[in-house]
Amino acid sequence: MYGRYTQDLGTFAKDEAARLRLQQGHGEGGSPRPRRPSELLEYTQGRCAPCRVCGLQCQRFLISKVGEDWVFLILLGLVMALVSWAMDFAIATCLQAQKWMYGGLDTNVLLQYLAWVTYPTVLITFSAGFTQILAPQAVGSGIPEMKTILRGVVLKEYLTFKTFVAKVIGLTCALGSGMPLGKEGPFVHIASMCAALLSRFLSLFGGFYENEARNIEMLAAACAVGVGCCFAAPIGGVLFSIEVTSTFFAVRNYWRGFFAATFSAFIFRVLAVWNKDEGTSSGVGGTGVPLPGSAHPATPPETITALFKTRFRLDFPFDLQELPAFAVIGIASGFGGALFVYLNRKIVQFMRRQKSINRFLMKKRLLFPALVTLLISTLTFPPGFGQFMAGQLTQKDTLVTLFDNQTWAKQGFGDEFEYLGILEAWRHPRSNVFVTLVVFILMKFWMSALATTIPVPCGAFMPVFVIAGAAFGRLVGESMAAWFPDGIHTDSNTYRIVPGGYAVVGAAALSGAVTHTVSTAVIVFELTGQISHILPVMIAVILANAVAQSLQPSLYDSIIRIKKLPYLPELGWGHHEKYNVRVEDIMVRDIRYVTLNCKYRDLQHVLHSTKMKSLPLVESAESMILLGSIERAQLGALLGHQLSPQRRLQALRQKALPEDAHQLSNASIRFQISTEASSVPPSRAASRKPLKPALKRVPSSLAETSPAGTTDHAGIALKSLFCANTAAEPTEVSGR
């Protein structure tokens, strides 16, 4: 009834390939094709002939296997793991150098301030200048551009080796300065560039890597690798990349993403163990001192653990009466995420709308990042205002302390808890921990929104995750612990509040609200190594997404709108009636176009009468069949080249040719439109349905060209504009 194959498709393909190889091995007459004498002398003569033949076969086998997907994914994961580990090592060295400079000048506060401010300013300025000179495309996150590329739009110079170098070096300097910047978005861009460069390299072994669809699949897997090796979270990385970069994700790419991300995360953590920095988790501070309430020893075992491993209670992690507090965190994080996106966009728009400021900063490109860095560094100076916001802590140390299980203030006073190690940064003799957390959240919130506008390679996920989300959750957890100092009584058992769990919930909720993703919950579980708070985290993340999506677009969609990238974001809540809007309702119909037989005067008239950046190319004014488009700048350059001295000299030479050749050169030359129909028999091509016009027939200056019967003397044709030497091209005289 439905029909069936007479033979299995895979078996048929193998048999057909074998038959074609056999035909290629024999000539058309059926006789074997003789091999070249050099091959015979090299491989079949001498005592080592069998070994040489075997070596040649092994070489061909290895070359054929290099093109396999799993080899490509292993190389991608290995390269990204090495890049991530090397960058983390360089960033940690830069941050340690800043601490060393600050600690070595403790006898003079003025010198401490100069060292504290000058060091990040120099790094940020170098990052901005280096990126601007080498590859301006490396500025920013990279996720908005990858969303656009995965939609099929070609962005020039975004996946080149030059951009890769600028992104890696610029991001290392930016994060090494200690500014509230992230690396998650740039790592997605770096992984995509690695995949593109590997595809170009492996295309030497097999042409299938030149396929556009295959490259898109590898870029989708590379986005997962970027998140996986950044957080050592392969599962969350795959899910996050799907949510952020793809509206349509092929199921066949799942194994590619999981395989490459898992391999990359494994190598990244193995390198961390080998480098003896695996033990920096929530139980061990940066100085090796165990934090209170943790079960970590001072010297951790050499094994692979979570990046920020926590030690929350497993038998009773939270009480059901705490769920309303977790829901409040989710709702508040939704409003906070929308406010962050709004603030970030308004800062950029304010800088662009102020014409005088914009022109000044365009001339002094390094002044804006230097001023922003100077302002933030001054406010975070530890002996100054930074003492009220733990200014001396890095992002990693901040997250380590916020995930601590011990309650810092049982009754709301900071001196009731014995601070050890890096926890000392949260203690102030004249204020309690609540004041410190509130000041930290408020100041770091707008600092992060401002810092992410600096023209350097940077992301916004980690500042939102660490600074605002985890700190806000910690504030709610400390408040709950102060309201219930003896814990919540359940069945004659008392379980104390764990503020670190609230910090985990807040980090996942706010980062999910800013990015409009739910996979941040999975990333949090892989970062902490525990899923004890899976229910509160999911509740908070879903509520935060519901609130944020109803108020603002995601941070990446907002950047897409700011940069005016060719991407159509999803419609928000309350805009479902816009799904009924058709393309014909918003398209421009009365447009200028270029035909195949238009003259030089017509092209000049089109360029002067319209300001469109791209002009449609149609077959003729009668058929209006759309053939493609040409950029306005490219068309102007071609017209300028048409009247260049070289072209005039060529015209003078043509006048000196014989009469027959002179007539041929004056004849109008049209495009040779090569389609698939040209390879089929004439009868089949004639039976095809006529093409429908893609543009509406409207009055235009080009529509008044000579009719089809009088195109023998059409003048200069468009083909001659595109080719400098028309004599070398196959031509077609219109008078055929």
UniProtKB/TrEMBL annotation:
GO terms for molecular function: voltage-gated chloride channel activity. GO terms for cellular component: chloride channel complex; plasma membrane. It is found in: Membrane. It comes from the Eukaryota. Keywords: CBS domain, Chloride, Chloride channel, Ion channel, Ion transport, Membrane, Repeat, Transmembrane, Transmembrane helix, Transport. The chain crosses the membrane at residues 70-92, 113-135, 187-206, 218-242, 254-274, 323-345, 366-385, 504-527, 534-551. Its main location: membrane. It is a multi-pass membrane protein. Residues 679-710 are annotated as: Disordered. It holds the Pfam family Voltage_CLC. Residues 686-695 have a biased composition (Basic residues). This is CLCN2 protein. It comes from Centropus bengalensis (lesser coucal). The gene is Clcn2.
